[in-house]
Automatic annotation (TrEMBL), chain A:
Residues in ABC transmembrane type-1 domain copies: 69-278
Keyword Phosphoprotein: no
Protein name: Sorbitol ABC transporter membrane protein /mannitol ABC transporter membrane protein
Species per Swiss-Prot/TrEMBL record: Tritonibacter scottomollicae
Family annotation (InterPro entries): ABC_transporter_permease, MetI-like, MetI-like_sf
Compartment list: Cell membrane
Similarity comment text for this entry: Belongs to the binding-protein-dependent transport system permease family.
UniProt superkingdom: Bacteria
Record's keyword terms, sorted: Cell membrane, Membrane, Transmembrane, Transmembrane helix, Transport
Gene3D superfamilies named among the record's database cross-references: MetI-like (1.10.3720.10)
A GO CC annotation given for this chain: plasma membrane
UniProtKB/TrEMBL annotation, chain B:
Keyword entries, A-Z: ATP-binding, Nucleotide-binding, Transport
GO-annotated cellular components: ATP-binding cassette (ABC) transporter complex, substrate-binding subunit-containing; maltose transport complex
Kinase in keyword set: no
Family in the record: Belongs to the ABC transporter superfamily.
Record Gene3D superfamilies: 2.40.50.100, Nucleic acid-binding proteins (2.40.50.140), P-loop containing nucleotide triphosphate hydrolases (3.40.50.300)
Highest taxon in the source lineage: Bacteria
Protein name (record): Sorbitol ABC transporter ATP-binding protein /mannitol ABC transporter ATP-binding protein
InterPro entries in the record: AAA+_ATPase (IPR003593), ABC_transporter-like_ATP-bd (IPR003439), ABC_transporter-like_CS (IPR017871), ABC_transpr_MalK-like (IPR015855), ABC_transpr_MalK/UgpC-like (IPR047641), Mo/tungstate-bd_C_term_dom (IPR008995), NA-bd_OB-fold (IPR012340), P-loop_NTPase (IPR027417)
Lineage: Bacteria, Pseudomonadati, Pseudomonadota, Alphaproteobacteria, Rhodobacterales
Domain ABC transporter span(s) in chain numbering: 4-234
Pfam families: ABC_tran, TOBE_2
Entries under CDD domains matching the protein: ABC_MalK_N
Automatic annotation (TrEMBL), chain C:
UniProt record similarity statement: Belongs to the binding-protein-dependent transport system permease family.
Domain ABC transmembrane type-1: 72-262
InterPro entries in alphabetical order: BP-dep_ABC_trans_perm (IPR050901), MetI-like (IPR000515), MetI-like_sf (IPR035906)
Cellular compartments annotated: Cell membrane
Signal peptide positions (record): none
Topology term for the membrane: Multi-pass membrane protein
PROSITE patterns: ABC_TM1 (PS50928)
A Pfam short name: BPD_transp_1
Gene Ontology biological-process entries: transmembrane transport
Name assigned to this protein: Carbohydrate ABC transporter permease
GO cellular component, one term: plasma membrane
Swiss-Prot/TrEMBL keywords: Cell membrane, Membrane, Transmembrane, Transmembrane helix, Transport
Location (main, coarse): membrane
Length: 288, 335, 276
């Protein structure tokens, strides 16, 4: 509801943001799509013409493709499972009355603010190093043989590092959602004779349902494209080459732009499928 | 001066027409109240006058000049909003000064007007506080102060009392009426509360679904409601409506009789019924009478001391000189 | 209303929560502690917790590496610049969407959000190419633009949700009081939205500071921020634990502090209002 005057003013004021984002989206996307149909090797002859769907076929049929999909799914799935389960438990714990709640909150949230390269490097060297790492000391203390984490247990290690970074995010959102639960609902359930477990199952968990969905979707989008953690630790070795990292290698290391771009289009499609679900939730929320 | 004329004004949001073509004149110095149930278009009408919404067609004239396309600030009107719309980051003084600051008024003149307004509204001690530190009534007065200093040709009030508690509302009602007497400026006041309308207005405009149902002084509306809607809307408790045989006796489709125009007795009367709920207000008692065979419930006002109990059989007698008659379309039939 | 519990129950909660909190925080704590050790003490077996010779030597050494300050400066320019630029572009857009909504507002908001979901790696080479053509590769200006663009949807969204909470009547009152559109935004909206704008600023500085795809792939010697500086420690300097820790501590400390201030807004900003 407004006057004609303010509506036209609004359109003008919205224009810069809309135009910039439109350009940011369309220009590189168009280029990626065009490259994906070309044989394009900047260091070995440059643009070698159209090749149709060759790149798409080659990207999928290369021996590295399926392992990379698997690595991606294992990392995303593993991190999601850990962060959601522990996030709910942590949120439950932090929602209880206690002394120093503010400080504990801060401690729990801290990892989210650590830049990915720092957390990857600190975990890799100071904790997971097979000779001088803290875990090695711990293993030796119990008389066990220290593990070379990032080569022998590369996947669990990466999942651990990434989960550590994202657990705070999940906890924070679930905690916020939990605090919005009307305590009278819980009291009513208690009066109705519901046990603590029943209260959790019938009231708390359904209340958290949407927050959990949001956590899963947002994390999925970010996790699909984790980069620094792998770049700093294994560089894609030991079975940790994710789809993102594979595309990165095709583009920047082997400089096969056509192939990398085809991979990029796959990644964009994948992300869009997840994003569509997220949009639906956010969009629904906009109406209320 | 502040004579506002609406000439065939309409307003549509998309395909929905909220105000069908409407003509209305608000005379200079008049206290006009727009009243109606929520969604009747009364606030939209006020916002059209203010210029916060464009009219879809028609013309708005202020003192004879076409103001239809004039931006809100240039119409010479001041508005008091339902939420008071005070600027929370500014002190009371700065809030009141804001319209003058926007008009680049000299500082001395600003100060003079602020002081005068603050004195008139009992705000002198609060000028340096922020709105958040004031009570609801004080905020309301700041909003009025901000309107007064502009010396507008008309004041627009959009349900200004609906956020106040009941006791404060009565007090503010008086203050606004007082202000109107003192300034003698046109005031247009929107409310859904017919009590506010009855007590404050020189002229009431009853609206329903964007249509004007009736325009008149409070007593006109009370004595001679033009149709069933106005009859039911004005007056509290609501007028009783009786159809059927009883109405036929008076040559009409529906008769209406106000609760205050029925006498109640334990022994004799024209109608009989059984007492249901009774509301004791102290000075008055309202009885809800059932099983009269006339309508589901007949409400009757009696003296505070009258003490019938739930289930008592009682007899009712309407004052025939105060009966309202309506035809099948719900329109008033004049005697 | 918080329910009252017995002191014993509260004590158990407290102990459990603190224990979990400390475990989660431990890697950061350990990094900070290690930064004050000598290199020998840093790899001592058994590990030394608090009783070692506290030293600031590592910080001095990291500082001395002539280029540390430049990395830091790059981080500040890139994170700060992209955020401020983003806010300047986003405030008018968010104003329009919050106060003059149309049927398309919702679609535009969701579309903006969807651009944020584009996987960066999918458009890496085109951006790389555009940057080379425009001479933006390894320049701070280039990164300011890219990070502004990737965070613009979040900035618009956050401002939009904050603006939505400001009652439209106040802006209408300003309009009635004779304020022009510029005056309305400058004198009424902006002062009222300061808390919201501040937390938007904070969260986006954090996001830009920690961004580690574009900053790693579009910079070399000139414009590299702290993310790249730390990544360069990957090997073999990474084996110097104390210095690695000192560098890490310096890279994360400012953001940790900012982050603690903005934790409440974080939820709102990162879930686009889907969780309140």
């Amino acid at each position: 509801m407004a006057t004609q005057h303010s509506r036209s003013a609004a359109r003008i004021m919205m224009a810069p943001a809309v135009i910039l984002l439109l350009g940011w989206m369309l220009v590189p996307l168009t280029m990626t799509v065009i490259f994906s149909f070309k044989k394009y090797l900047p260091l070995r002859g440059g643009d070698l013409g159209w090749v149709g769907f060759d790149n798409y076929v080659r990207f999928v049929s290369s021996s590295t493709f399926w392992p990379s999909v698997q690595a991606t799914l294992v990392i995303v799935g593993g991190v999601l499972a850990i962060t959601v389960v522990f996030g709910v438990l942590l949120a439950l714990l932090l929602d209880q009355p206690m002394w120093g709640q503010g400080v504990v909150r801060i401690l729990v949230i801290a990892p989210f603010f650590v830049m990915p390269t720092v957390s990857a490097l600190v975990w890799k060297n100071i904790f997971m190093d097979p000779v001088n790492g803290l875990f090695a000391h711990l293993w030796k203390f119990f008389g066990a043989e220290p593990i070379s984490w990032l080569s022998e247990a590369s996947m669990p290690s990466i999942i651990l590092i990434v989960s550590w970074q994202w657990l705070p995010f999940a906890t924070l959102i679930l905690l916020t959602a939990m605090q919005s639960l009307d305590s009278e609902q819980l009291e009513a359930a208690e009066m109705d004779g519901a046990s603590p477990l029943a209260r959790f199952g019938y009231i708390v968990l359904p209340h958290l349902g949407r927050a959990i969905t949001v956590v899963v979707l947002i994390q999925t989008i970010f996790l699909l494209s984790i980069f620094a953690e792998i770049f700093v630790t294994t560089q894609g070795a030991f079975g940790t080459r994710t789809l993102t990292y594979l595309i990165f290698q095709r583009v920047l290391e082997s400089q096969n732009i056509g192939l990398g771009s085809a991979g990029g289009v796959y990644a964009i499609i994948l992300a869009n499928i997840v994003a569509a679900f997220l949009m639906r939730i956010v969009g629904k929320n906009l109406d209320t | 001066m502040g004579r506002i004329t609406l000439d065939k004004v309409t307003k549509s949001f998309g395909a929905t027409e909220v105000i069908p073509p409407l003509d209305l004149t608000i005379e200079d110095g008049e206290f006009t109240v727009f009243v109606g149930p929520s969604g009747c278009g009364k606030s939209t009408l006020l916002r059209l006058i203010a210029g916060l919404e464009d009219v879809s067609s028609g013309q708005i004239r202020i003192d004879g000049n076409d103001a239809t396309m004039v931006p809100p600030a240039k119409r010479g009107l001041a508005m008091v909003f339902q939420s008071y719309a005070l600027y929370p980051h500014m002190s009371v003084r700065k809030n009141i000064a804001f319209p003058m600051r926007m008009a680049n008024m000299p500082q001395e003149e600003q100060d003079r007007r602020i002081d005068a307004a603050a004195k008139a509204l009992n705000l002198t001690d609060y000028l340096d506080r922020k709105p958040g530190q004031l009570s609801g009534g004080q905020r309301q007065r700041v909003a009025i102060g901000r309107a007064i200093v502009r010396e507008p040709s008309a004041f627009l009030f959009d349900e200004p009392l609906s956020n106040l508690d009941a006791a404060l509302r009565v007090g503010m009602r008086m203050e606004i009426s007082e202000l109107h007497k003192k300034l003698a400026t046109t005031m247009v006041y929107v409310t859904h509360d017919q009590v506010e309308a009855m007590t404050m207005a020189d002229k009431i405009v009853v609206l329903r679904a964007g249509h004007i149902e009736q325009v008149g002084s409070p007593l006109d509306l009370y004595r001679a409601p033009r149709n069933l809607f106005v009859a039911g809307f004005i007056g509290s408790p609501k007028m009783n409506f009786i159809e059927g045989e009883e109405a036929a006796k008076y040559d009409c489709h529906t008769i209406g009789v106000r609760p205050e125009h029925i006498t109640i007795s334990g022994s004799e009367g024209a109608w009989s019924g059984v007492v249901g709920v009774s509301e004791h207000l102290g000075s008055d008692t309202f009885f809800h009478i059932h099983e009269t065979g006339l309508a589901e419930t007949i409400t009757v006002r009696a003296d505070g001391e009258v003490g019938f109990k739930h289930g008592d059989r009682v007899y009712l007698t309407p004052r025939t000189d105060m009966l309202h008659r309506f035809d099948t379309k719900g329109l008033r039939i004049d005697a | 209303m918080a329910r009252s519990v017995t002191p014993q129950r509260k004590a158990i909660n407290t102990i459990a929560a603190w224990a979990v909190g400390l475990v989660i925080f431990f890697p950061i704590l350990w990094t900070i502690l290690t930064s004050f050790k000598t290199e020998a003490q840093a790899i001592n077996d058994p590990p030394l917790f608090l009783f070692f010779d506290w030293t600031l030597e590592n910080y001095a050494v990291v500082q001395e590496r002539s280029n540390y300050m430049r990395f830091l400066w790059n981080s500040i320019i890139i994170a700060g610049g992209s955020t401020v630029l983003g806010i300047i572009i986003a405030v008018p857009a968010a104003w329009s969407m919050a106060f003059v909504p149309s049927k398309r507002t919702k679609d535009i908001l969701l579309w903006m959000l969807s651009t944020k979901m584009l996987p960066a790696v999918g458009v890496l080479y085109p951006i790389y190419l555009i940057f080379i053509r425009m001479g933006l590769l390894d320049s701070r200006a280039g990164l300011v633009i890219v990070l502004m663009l990737i965070n613009l949807p979040i900035i618009v969204w956050m401002l939009y949700t904050y603006f939505k909470e400001i009652p439209g009547e106040i802006l209408e009152a300003a309009r009635m009081d004779g304020a022009s559109l510029k005056e309305e935004i400058l004198y009424v909206l902006t002062p009222m939205a300061i808390p919201g704008i501040a937390s938007t600023l904070l969260l986006n500085i954090i996001l830009a500071w920690n961004e580690a795809f574009w900053t790693l792939n579009l910079t070399a010697a000139q414009a590299a921020p702290l993310t790249a500086f730390i990544a360069s420690y990957s090997s073999p300097e990474g084996l110097f634990y104390a210095k690695l820790s000192a560098a890490s501590t310096m890279a994360i400390a400012p953001i940790l502090i900012l982050g603690w201030f903005s934790q409440k807004q974080l939820v709102r900003g990162l879930t686009f209002g889907a969780v309140k």
